[in-house]
Specification:
By secondary structure, the chain is mainly alpha-helical. The protein contains 15 helices and 5 strands. It has helices at 8-11, 35-39, 43-47, 72-82, 111-118, 128-131, 138-149, 155-160, 179-185, 187-201, 209-215, 219-222, 225-251, 258-274, 285-292, and strands at residues 12-15, 59-60, 63-64, 95-99, 105-106. The longest helix is centred in the last third of the chain and has 27 residues, at 225-251. Residues 109-193 form the Reverse transcriptase zinc-binding domain.
């Protein structure tokens, strides 16, 4: 936040009314921005106004009262003030305004609108809607985001950083651990994924993340909202569960059998889908899920 401090004057503006609260030197109350930045450190001495002076301190008998200009900057300020009505008590308290996403200043602050103005925009990635969607579980979305970025600290990455760790996948104990192996080339992770994805898709689903992401663009899924939501949620829950199981085996030496992990995934999906009731045009997501999973897990 401190690194963004220099941008504050472009977002926060003071609308001067009675001039009792607005700082003459530090608030952005004219189009010139904070006058301390515009005039410089010698400003208080040239204008005979203290550092803590309010805008109202520059007014005498209802008119602007400033000494003769001794620099071009001060002269520019005085020219501007000739077209600016001086503050009056009858106008009420000074008001602080925040710049919104449209570039206008308003009394309402929006963290979203501010972030949209601050952030660097990049091209939308093809997996964005697989990670962020209304029905997602936040903790699973975060792990899914790292999976898509390839940023989880898998053993191949740890070795690449110079750490001395075994490279064997703790889930299958048959191949080196990497993102592509863990999601879902590993026999253990593939079995967990296919147990749900195949009946939900109505066909054998891909077992490689690079092939799974384009799957959501196919009419089989993209044209059916319930299939799309359940499949996206499934992908996140399975990925989260696999990463959690992987960590448990490494750090606590406790292993959950595949059949037990399937039940955990099933329970998580049911609980989440239960929170979205049926509508007039669509049955509930949970009902759809039960229809896909005709055989018990």
């Amino acid at each position: 936040m401190l690194q963004l401090k220099h941008m504050l004057p472009t977002f926060l503006k003071c609308e001067v009314r009675n001039g009792l609260d607005a700082s003459f030197w530090w608030d952005s109350w004219t189009s010139l921005g904070p006058l301390m930045d515009f005039v410089g450190q010698s400003g208080p001495r040239m204008l005979r106004l203290r550092l803590d002076a309010k805008v109202g301190d520059a007014v005498r008998s209802g008119e602007w009262y400033l000494p003769n200009a001794r620099s071009d900057r001060v002269q520019e300020l005085q020219i501007l003030l000739t077209a600016t009505p001086p503050p009056e008590i009858a106008r009420g308290a000074d008001t602080y305004l925040w710049r919104n996403a449209a570039g206008n200043y308003a009394k309402k602050f929006s963290s979203r609108g501010t972030w949209e103005q601050l952030r660097t925009r990049s091209a939308q990635v093809p997996w964005s809607k697989i990670v962020w969607f209304r029905e997602a579980i936040p903790r699973a979305s975060f792990i899914m985001w790292l999976v898509c970025l390839g940023r989880l600290p898998t053993r191949d990455r740890l070795i690449g950083w110079g750490m001395t760790v075994p490279d064997l996948c703790p889930l299958c104990l048959a191949a080196a651990e990497s993102h592509s192996h863990l999601f879902f080339s590993c026999t253990f992770s593939e079995a967990l994924w296919q147990a749900f994805a195949t009946p939900m898709c109505g066909q054998i689903a891909p077992s490689n993340l690079a092939d799974i992401i384009p799957l959501f663009q196919l009419p089989l899924i993209s044209s059916r909202s319930q299939v799309q939501v359940c499949m996206k949620l499934l992908l996140q829950v399975v990925s989260y569960s696999l990463w959690r199981e992987r960590n448990a085996r490494i750090f606590t030496a406790i292993s959950t059998p595949l059949h037990a992990l399937k039940r955990m995934v099933d329970r998580t999906l049911r609980d989440r889908l239960l929170s979205f009731p049926a509508t007039d045009s669509h049955p509930s997501l949970l009902e759809f899920y039960f229809g896909c999973m005709s055989h018990p897990i």
